Amino acid sequence: MLAVQLEGGRVDVREAPIPARPPGFALIRLLAAGICNTDLELQRGYYGFSGTPGHEFVGVVVEADEAALIGRRVVGEINLACGACEWCRAGLGRHCPHRAVLGIAGHPGAFSEYFTLPERNLHAVPDHISTERATFTEPVAAACEILDQVVIPWGGEVAVLGDGKLGLLAAQVLLAHGARVHVYGRHAAKLAIAGACGAVTFDNGSLPASRYEWVVEATGAVEGLAAAIRMTRPRGTVIMKSTVHGEVPLDTAPAIVNEITLVGSRCGRFEPALALLAGDRLRVEEMISDRFPLADAARAFERASVGGVLKVLLDAA
């Protein structure tokens, strides 16, 4: 089978054996997968990563202990938790100290013709959700996590700083929730997607100060967090979504003096994400910039790293 390999900043596609399926795991054949900013950061050296990346996927189960899964299209939660620690018992396996993470830490990812994942991580994709739409399940779940962590009332005014993939999804999820959303970005085409969804859009060349009670930082840039703090009113909340390779320098005084709450926000539940994707509130197809076969992964990564490009999909042969 073909599998993508990241090592030393290089993207290669190599022949590899089909992985063995441990008990409780499913063997999955890839249909399509999305390249996200985390994958690009892994290529740049985030986590000292070397191996097969990929965690946004739709696949077909070819082997499983649970017979009902075989032949089903599935998406999968990316954290492989131990299932026994206090975090797992509390339903927070994404914070299990013993976890592996699909395509990021300790478990080969989905940019491969075949890969494995625990059956308990899998969610069947309803027949009426297309494969390309379902590839957005994991990042939509990450956007939904904002609403699991922070109470934002209907009609609340929220700023999303960043018009990239996650910023646009966060804006759409917040709009579906009933928030009034202002999106700040640098790309007219991306801002047009947010505007078509109902957001008010602004060029981020001149950001307001102390304007918002809630700011979602999704720039993917080292300077994004400081900018988000400056935009937040006293006792407001910054939801931090960017994962950046390297240290983020930050003057903490504005956050302390203005008593601003900083909320780290990562993975989310798949159930609300699939429910939103089953409806018509999310315009994710407009966010697909390009598609490449898995064998052309190097070219796909190159395309995904170009400024202004949104989602790039890898399709299995």
Uncertain stretches of 5 or more adjacent residues: none
- Class inferred from helices and paired strands: alpha/beta
Number of helices: 10
Helices and strands, in order, run as: EEEHEEEHEEEEHHEHEHEEHEHEHEHE
In CATH, what is the class of the largest domain?
Alpha Beta
Please report the total strand number as a whole number: 18
CATH topology grouping of the largest domain = Quinone Oxidoreductase, Chain A, domain 1
The name of the CATH architecture of the largest domain is: Alpha-Beta Complex
From the alpha carbons, calculate the radius of gyration and give it in angstroms.
19 Å
Shape: globular
> The biggest beta sheet, please?
7 strands, mixed
Mean of the pLDDT scores?
95
Strand content: 25-35%
**CATH evolutionary superfamily of the largest domain:** Medium-chain alcohol dehydrogenases, catalytic domain
Q: What number of domains?
A: 2
Query: What fraction, in percent, of the residue positions are helical?
Result: 25-40%
The separation of the N and C termini measures 11 Å
